[in-house]
Design brief:
It comes from Paenibacillus sediminis. By secondary structure, the chain is mainly alpha-helical. It has helices spanning about 1-5, 10-40, 45-55, 55-70, 75-95, 100-115, 115-130, 135-160, 165-185, 190-195, 205-220, 225-255, 260-290, 290-310, 315-345, 350-355, 355-375, 380-420. It has one domain: Growth Hormone, Chain: A (Up-down Bundle). The protein is about 85% helix and about 0% strand.
């Protein structure tokens, strides 16, 4: 782990990502509290806000990976921060005048711009780290995610109750400025930021964009192990969509209607603790167990525990289940995060990683849309948890059916290649 922090580029990218994500979580959660507070009788507003974070993926998904592989990855990540900072200023104005349609449009645009950040950053990290450091970086990122979960909602509630929604959005915007400055300060080899050589935006037509995007799909389809791994991301998207709003709904309309903000903060604390504990466990497991075994077992247990949430009839039982779910999911995320860079060629990383968000966000948008339409008049919280748990169980079955044989096939091919050399 110490070797990671000797790498100055990694440290700056890591802090930039941390700052940007923390500010975003604070701003988004404060906005959710604002909507639930001002429009308590209209919970679909909070769901619509979550959809504004998810839907833009479907608008730009065919561009982000092509840009990350065709153009300067460092400038893409940096400019993404600058544009989001500017949009945050407009969001402050929209909130001050309580103009919700404009606020939702700005959230949509800001989310669309953010989609260019992750493929570029992921591709840069692949280039500045050695193969042996992928698992370490994935474990560290998972620990940071646990910290976000631990403090993010609480900080959002604190920001909303102290500096208000306007102050929370300003904090969000400043986080993008800090992130952009850190990314600009990195000194990265041209082969990493421009793996396919320089390109001209004017020469990149629609046909070339879709051809490049299709090449990413063909690359994934040509690697069955990678294809199977990414198939599960579609099912994970439904889970993300459900958990984006259901914990708050569960607290407000079932377990803690009189103090749902505090209970929602406790939800984040418990799942954050679970992710932190699970991150430590995952760092050990990836050294002694095969990654596909960690993924299969972790997804299976998560599905069973999600169904168990149905029977949590008081706050502390619900929070305990959530903490265990976080502990189980963290090793899964570490295994997947450390595995993907091993399976993808550096010059294809942008186009491959660009498929992850569309798969997840399409499912997430469908889930949020269905919840907005069907809850609470047509489906109950209990039925929704049944559906989410069932999808996780389905993902574990798919992985159990496919991954072991594909891993054996990959290991055999690598052994043959070694002998041939």
């Amino acid at each position: 782990m110490k070797q990671l922090f000797v790498n100055r580029n990694f440290v700056r990218l890591f802090i930039a990502s941390f700052t940007s994500q923390l500010g975003t979580i604070v701003g988004n959660m404060a906005f959710a509290f604002f909507l639930l507070d001002r429009f308590a009788s209209q919970p679909y507003y909070a769901t619509l806000a979550e959809m504004m974070y998810a839907l833009p993926t479907l608008l730009v998904f065919f561009l982000v990976g092509v840009f990350a592989d065709r153009f300067n990855r460092q400038r893409i990540a940096e400019n993404s921060d600058w544009i989001r900072a500017g949009l945050s200023v407009l969001l402050v104005v929209a909130v001050m005048y309580a103009w919700l349609p404009a606020a939702f449009c700005i959230l949509f645009l800001r989310s669309a711009v953010s989609k260019f950040f992750s493929p570029a950053e992921m591709a840069i990290l692949q280039g500045v780290l050695s193969r042996e450091q992928y698992d370490q970086a994935a474990g560290l990122n998972q620990m940071i995610f646990g910290i976000f979960m631990l403090f993010g909602v609480a900080l959002g509630a604190i920001a909303y109750n102290t500096v208000g929604i306007t102050g929370a959005v300003i904090i969000d915007g400043l986080s993008f400025v800090v992130s952009g400055l850190l990314i600009r300060s990195c000194r990265i080899d041209t082969t990493v930021v421009l793996p396919n050589g320089p390109s001209n935006l004017r020469q990149l037509g629609i046909s070339e964009i879709f051809q490049d995007f299709g090449e990413g799909y063909r690359y994934i389809r040509g690697h069955r192990l990678l294809f199977t791994l990414l198939t599960g991301f579609f099912l994970f998207g439904f889970i993300n969509g459900g958990f984006a709003v259901l914990p708050m709904f569960t607290m407000k309309y079932k377990l803690a209607p009189d103090h749902f903000e505090q209970s929602a903060s406790l939800f984040a604390i418990f799942i954050g603790i679970g992710f932190l504990v699970g991150s430590g466990l995952g760092a050990v497991l990836v050294k002694v167990m095969k990654k596909h075994v960690i993924i299969i077992v972790g997804v299976l247990l998560s599905g069973l525990l999600t169904i168990g949430l149905i029977y949590a009839n008081e706050v502390w039982m619900y929070l305990t289940y959530i903490g265990v779910i976080g502990c189980v999911l963290a090793p899964v995320n570490i295994a997947i995060g450390g595995w993907l860079p091993e399976l993808v060629a550096p010059d294809k990383m942008g186009r491959v990683s660009a498929w992850i968000d569309p798969l997840m966000m399409l499912a997430q948008s469908i889930a949020l849309g269905l919840i907005a339409i069907l809850y609470p008049h047509f489906i109950s919280l209990e039925l929704t948890y049944w559906l989410m748990g069932g999808l996780l169980l389905l993902a574990s079955i798919i992985y159990l059916w496919k991954l072991p044989n594909l891993v054996k096939e990959k290991e055999l091919n690598e052994a043959i290649s070694t002998i041939s050399v």
